[in-house]
Fold each of these.
Amino acid sequence: MANMIKLVSTIGFSVIFAVILNEVTAKPQHPPLKIVNGTTAKDGEFPYMVQLLSDSDAFFCGGSIIGDRWILTAGHCVEASEGGKVVYGTNLLAEEKHLDTAIKIKKSYLHPLFAYNYTYGGDIPYFDVGILELEHAIPFDAKAQPVQLANSETNSSAPMPFHQNGTLSGWGVNETFGAAAEFLQKINLQLLNDTECARKIDDYVSVDIFNSTHNLCSDDYYNGECFGDSGSPFVVNGLQYGVVSWSFKPCGITPGTYSRLTTPAYREFIRNVTGI
């Protein structure tokens, strides 16, 4: 028996980029996907977390504060951000709640090389990073602070923190096609090295699809990112190394992937736009 698997960028509910993969051998049934299998974050625990709302106040992506007027997110989230707003300083899902910590998006910046790369496995977004400029500055306090970004791999003497635990946080659904989380979720995941990522992801579809220039992955089998977590940060030792980009569905069937912020072309884009 074979099943159909969707490869989707994990943008939320009104806009979903998806392609249907060719049939692959059915995998063993996994437990109910309950971020999946995460726990509720404490209020103010991740002061860099923001949520992106459309012009109709519908939640569609996560993001991180990197400056008082600057939000880092996924490139495919930027595509859906026109007329939207950013909500900061709260663990509560702000959808249709009209919270006073919302700031309109002034301008969006998509990586100039952003594109979907067609492979046998599906359409994979490359250079999947974007920047949102806000209409006015976020007033920093205990619940709203910027995250520090990891340096480019070519400009850093520190090795990549492979096999160390990092934290993924987001308001994404807790099971495939479920409802967005009412409160911010978190989960600790180990950052895998490139060989492990390629093996775990590529073996699933029997095609080379993981690209270590563009992506990182964490050991989130049965756990981790799902719809709505796109743009959310993956942080190791206080530094953001990744932005949730794409994953196979159902959620947790393989490790999810992040845009690799230490790749020079990604880090330089952020610096050129924001000065950060």
Amino acid sequence: MSAEKVSIHLANILGKNLEKSDEEIAVLNYGLFVIIQAVYSIILILVVGLVTGLLKELVIISTFSAMMKRYAGGPHASTPNRCLSIGILIATAFAFLCRYFIEKLSIHHVMIFILVVIITSYYVLYLRCPVGSKEKPLKKESIRTRLRKKAFKLMNVYSFIVLSLCLIYSIYNNYLIKSILISILFGIILQIFTISKTGENIVMGLDKYLDKLYKVLH
């Protein structure tokens, strides 16, 4: 059962028992939906991570990408389930790339990679942030300015974390530090990619494909 159906069912039960108005039930439904969808996301990430052997990478990539998405925005699929499926699919692809980079990059290449990712991220944020969707068009300038400032502040925090981990890795040459560092970078890349025009087109293309697949199967 989808998170939307579960939240509606629970909201109606709780609303009737607590004698809430239709408006209060709608608010309750939205809150429950957010919580249930988050639980679904966590469970799916853990399952996919364990099955693919990419648990650490997938958790870090998804976490850092999701935190940035709160402010940078990005495209949304036509349904919550499709949005979740596409998000996990793309994050898993990035996790495979991440594992390859962890194994192949030397310390010097890691440093170059960091500089490229940070500079590119600030540039794309400057050009595109925040990116709205049909559900959240973000037309109000005050809201856009607030989200933009928060996105850049978070990017500053990310940069500090990445550079600090790079310093630690350069001193101790620890594999775990390296894997965390590169996973964070791919989490940043994932969100920057999704707010780019190319990323937006890919998400929308996958949404249309899943819609056709759903119609065929049903």
